[in-house]
Design a protein that fits this description.
Elements (H helix, E strand, L loop, with lengths): L14 H11 L3 H4 L2 H37 L20 H15 L3
Helix pairs in contact: 3-4
């Protein structure tokens, strides 16, 4: 059996490190088999979560881009059926402002 070994050092004056040491020393051997297996499983889980987060970030980026492309050509206006007889047509400056506000809203996602 070939092995790859790596050493991990814990700083006993660091409270986070000592909490990890305490946790590793209290592992249920029947459930986790060994500290080594627990650490391997934890690393696998961290890698899977990182890969999922990367995929989620890429999907969100694509979604944002599609929304921006689709919303660029849309102007937000009030209903044309105004009972007060007020002209609700937006000026070019108002249309640009609406477009900018829509894109700024999308940046929150």
């Amino acid at each position: 059996m070939s092995e790859y070994r790596i050493n991990v050092r814990f700083n006993l004056s660091d409270t986070e490190h000592t909490a990890i040491i305490d946790y590793l020393n209290s592992l249920d051997k029947e459930k986790y088999k060994s500290r080594n297996q627990f650490i391997i499983d934890a690393i696998k889980s961290a890698i899977a979560n990182a890969d999922k987060q990367t995929a989620d970030d890429e999907l969100l980026g694509k979604f944002r881009e599609i929304l921006k492309e689709e919303l660029c050509g849309i102007s937000v206006t009030a209903s044309a059926h105004s009972s007060a007889g007020i002209d609700m047509e937006l000026t070019e400056e108002q249309k640009l402002k609406n477009d900018a506000e829509a894109l700024a809203f999308l940046d929150m996602f």
